[in-house]
Amino acid sequence: MDKDFWVHVKDTFFEFLMHIGPRAIYALVALVIGIFGIKIIMRILKRVLRKSKVELSLQSFVGSLSIFILWGLLIFLIGSILGIEASSFLAIFGAAGIAIGLALQGSLANFAGGVLILLFKPFRVGDLIKVNEVLGFVVEIDILYTRVKTYDGLIVTMPNGNVSNSDVDNRTMEPYRRIGLNFKFNYDVDIDFVLQLIIKTMKKHPRITHDPEPDAWLDSIGEYELKVIARCWVPSEEYYPAYWEQLLAVKKALDAQGIEMPIPKRTIYQPEMKEVMKNFPPQKQSEVAENGTHK
């Protein structure tokens, strides 16, 4: 290649740098300022949401959505500084949006699920829920996922799309929950005494409510036992501690009165030897009569 070609390439390159160089510097400055600006705006937004006492689930969702919008605006601003026309930029965003939408259909469904959760509020941050066999406390609801902390300390992240389309058992939505205890007793037990003992023991618990009062009754008569059901109401957040404490208290009260749980029983009928010998042939009957045994 001749020398003129390389001179032309060099001149074109320097011309490009002179044209794009200042814009690139401005874009870099805008990027740095924009990053710090986003951080400051997010701090102010969180402070405002916290002072306005907006519920935690909405705070988390608004924070996630705000970051997404702010970064989109920053990218648009940098593109404009670099000389990309608004129409071209929108066309690029539109094409990219279609491609991303097709590739991330699940994420869009999760976003829609997050919006539905915030609108209809089947649960909020801090609620105890059971969904898809996961039982735990809601710790975060963002634009795509809901995070639940189980009783054994695990953090389970569930897509909002799945959560919004599943049955959600919210165990703290109501202020009170009912505790149910099931017991079995022998037939010879004094059932009236047992029922009064259980009710008296349950009433001693400090966390239960007295409207309605604790109660107990004979539920059914089984093959070898009497089945008793006992009920009381407690604040929802106290359910599990109260359940375990009530169960232990009733067990101790029954033990103190010498009341035992039933053991399965079977009656075995053994016929007399004469009745058994009727089924033997005569020769065997004589052998049994002589020897007193049967082989």
What does this structure look like?
With 295 residues, this protein is α+β, with helices and mostly antiparallel strands. The chain is 54% helix and 18% strand. The protein has 3 domains: 13-103, Helix Hairpins (Orthogonal Bundle), CATH 1.10.287.1260; 115-170, SH3 type barrels (Roll), CATH 2.30.30; 176-256, Alpha-Beta Plaits. The chain is built from 9 helices and 8 strands. The longest helix is centred in the N-terminal third of the chain and has 49 residues, at 3-51. The mean pLDDT is 79. InterPro entries: LSM_dom_sf, MS_channel_C, MSC_TM_helix, MscS_archaea/bacteria_type, MscS_beta-dom_sf, MscS_channel_2nd, MscS_channel_C_sf, MscS_channel_TM-2. This is Mechanosensitive ion channel family protein. Residues 181-261 form the Mechanosensitive ion channel MscS C-terminal domain.
